[in-house]
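WARN no homologs supplied; continuing
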Amino acid sequence: MKVLVLEDNESLLELITEELEDMGYEVSSFNDGLDALEHCIDGFDCFILDINVPNVDGISLLKEIRNRDKTTPAIIISANFELENVKKAYSNGCNDFLKKPFYMYELETKIKQLCHLGEEKNLLANYTYNLSSETLFDENKEAVKLTRKERRFISLLIKHENKMTPLEYIEDYVWEGEMTTSVGIRSMIKRLRVKLPDGMIVSQHFGYEIKTF
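OK structure emitted
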């Protein structure tokens, strides 16, 4: 799982990064909002944003993220817990607000809850998918070999369960900021379908959906 952390306090940034990496997360750390803005569509599963940072503040960055991505969990962290600040954070799309100082356990718990980590989803033909390990199991409970892009594609569709996932979301999340084309996306999905039961991945006009139970 990929997490973006924006925090201008170097000591706290280092602590959060180390703790999350120890949990097995892939962390991209920034102390400047403009730098974070340049990378915010690189396929993240969670955003942790301080408000008062140089150049682009955390709320403004969240606005930009929500213009493109309405669903990825975002946690605002701030020492300023005034009501106006909290209202502004939530009105611009944050999922939770954590007041500094906080215990790392609080942050870790919020990430797990918001990202539904550890959940196992039941798919067609008795296949299952573990969101925490990004592992697909067949009807015999054996792991299906998947590429990184294939794992991220399935994870993304499951996070948008029972909804169509738009092509631009797939490009941002699966290709992690790299350029691709609709042909490249279709080619990856064609290869993936060979490994899956018929009907698990459903094509929509502007995206794809996965069938779960």
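The longest helix spans residues 10-22.
OK
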